[in-house]
# Entry
Amino acid sequence: MTSLDIQPLVTHIYTADPSAHVFNGRIYVYPSHDIATDIVDNDNGDQYAMEDYHVLSLPSISGPVTDHGVVLSLKDIPWAAKQLWAPDAATKNGKYYFFFPARNHEGFFQIGVAVADEPHGPFVPEPEPIKGSYSIDPASFVDDDGQAYLYFGGIWGGQLQCWQKGVYDKDAYTTMEALEGPALSARVAKLSNDMKSFVGEDVAVEIFDPATKELLHSSDHDRRFFEAAWVHKRNGVYYFSYSTGDTHYLCYATGDSPLGPFTYRGRILEPVTGWTTHHSIVEFEGRTWLFHHDASLSGGKNHLRCVKVRELWYTEDGSLTAENPGASA
# Structure
């Protein structure tokens, strides 16, 4: 563990769910902005009552950190009623696109997109959510050929289990997740050239057991997807990483296509202080960095979190590890 991992990125506000990217030679972090609330913790996630987004940026991994202030607020999004949860951003065609989830006025989550001329915003939201979008935790990925993808989904409060029939079924909420058979997984859709709509239908992100060659099972809580999808690419290999939720691990799988299938490879982070684990992985100046959050700044309050960063390494076979393989014993 390094001093980077011990210290929160910022302490003047509570931040979580960091999506980190390198734009114009600078690291930009797009987190959610936790706020204090009297709402009792529940599986619906009502205690995560976020109302706006900030953007943070750094010239180097050690800072200093600039808070660019509020770049998008709930009051500016006509279709959104509450809960601006984990966002992400991407650049294409000289513009910057900010993807975010929120509960609509009917009570279920959809994903919106906002556009800016600069990576630090401010972002102007589209008047309607992305058609066909649902659930939470959008993660964008633009491949080398320029095709963009959006990954999304989360079970329990993320409502992914409510969409198994293709339409929102609030009664499915009582099961919370698949109870038998393959685990529910993230979804992925191709994005249009203007980054504002899906091209075709979204599909499941399939994660296979390397030994049995079968899809990870719903009972496999140590390895199955729960929320917080992220994709990055290295040496032609696509790395799909995610949170296991109630077991509090960050895990990853690899594949030959951004659409999958993926094969489970292992863990990259053990449980942290607080209930949730959410992350991003970014390459910067020849090194690999894991941005994540915990609840240490608030003394363990699950809905008041702080962003941290630590280094990751690759072994010879392409495995990801939080332990420096070159360090002496």
Summary: The mean pLDDT is 95. The chain has one domain: 14-321. The domain at 14-321 is CATH 2.115.10.20 (Tachylectin-2; Chain A). The chain is about 0% helix and 40% strand.
